[in-house]
């Protein structure tokens, strides 16, 4: 891999950003739901949590949602990158297979031509 100073075109594809945003929204919703349920449970049963300020409780909720969003966005981007790598490897394998098949056909054609030339040369 070339050093980072010589890498060009480092901007991600446009559809990758939408995948990351969808992953972030999904993770924020999931973690936010869990965080909200935890908030109601803690608010009823734990006196220490009840005495926290509203601002700190909001901070805790937002932290959970941001963490979940980041985790799920990263997962979506990683899955996409893996699928691209998998597809590229499959294309390379098929190209190798086709080139090998082409070589075998060319060799078979050359042998057939040689045999026909030998057959013509032996008859005269």
**Low-pLDDT ranges:** none
Number of domains: 1
Number of helices: 3
Integer-rounded radius of gyration: 31 Å
Mean pLDDT: 91
Distance between the termini: 61 Å
What level of helicity do the residues show? over 70%
Shape: rod-shaped
What percent strand? under 5%
> Could you give the count of β-strands?
0
Note the main sheet. none
Indicate the structural class: mainly alpha
Helix and strand string, N-terminal first?
HHH
Organism: Capronia coronata CBS 617.96
Protein name: HIG1 domain-containing protein
Transmembrane segments: 20-42
Keywords: Membrane, Transmembrane, Transmembrane helix
Written overview of the protein:
With 124 residues, this protein is an all-alpha fold. It has one domain (15-123). Helix content is 85%, strand content 0%. The chain has three helices and no strands. It has helices at residues 14-45, 47-50, 54-123. The two termini are 61 Å apart. The model has no long low-confidence stretch (mean pLDDT 91).
Notable characteristics:
124 residues; mainly alpha; 3 helices; 85% helix; HIG1 domain-containing protein; transmembrane; Rcf3
Walk me through the topology.
Elements: H1 14-45, H2 47-50, H3 54-123
